[in-house]
Amino acid sequence: MTTANPSLNDIFNQDFASELDPKMSLQKYMHVAFIFSVLQNSTAVLTDFKSRRNYTYHGALSAHLGIGEKMTSEMSDSVWEERILKCIHPDDLRSKQTMELQLFHYIKNKPQEERLNYYLVMRIRVMAKNKVYVPLELKIFYASSVDSIQLVLYIYSFTSPNNGDQTTPYTIINSSNGETLSGTDLRLKKILTKREIEVLKEIAKGSASKEISEKLYISKNTVDRHRQNIIEKLRVKNSTEACHAATLMGII
Q: Which residues span the domain enclosing 144?
């Protein structure tokens, strides 16, 4: 069963007409992924959205999770590394997908030379081969050409259960100056229209479509259309997931 990532639909819709900067080519990113797997004993997954392939490099973490042997690597004709995704706690997997979408929408409008400055760090729970969840640190980096974001590098590493602020499970960092970005900094409200945000806020309160239509002075059909647009734009399955995603992204 495929563990689809709703945030990737936006990336698949890119043009991919331009090539990556030769200074940061696919081969060089493959080498970076390998180095992380060796120096940090990480599981490093490099996804190429243009060719829809992923390259996985296994450190000691992979052996602990039961998904690969240390100092090995493999290529798959898929954008998803299914073995690790299915081990991530469901709540953390939804957060991961939401934050990927948040980072993507933020950096795609940045000049190409600035995009490499930003990366996502988050804490997730992943089930080890002994069926016990272990805390991991996940770092996500995007690489781009002029017209698209083509590569994403995922670095899964061991972390202490007491490492980091439990109230801040994720951070987007500008590595060029050390600044961290808040939901306000990311200005992601533009993903949804003002009216869609109003509707979503009412949905989050538990209001039914008829109640929303009466409060906002619009027809029930219009409310239902806004509901569908919200679900499609946030790449989620239903209104409950839309509220969860929008809250994480700072939209509501």
A: 8-186
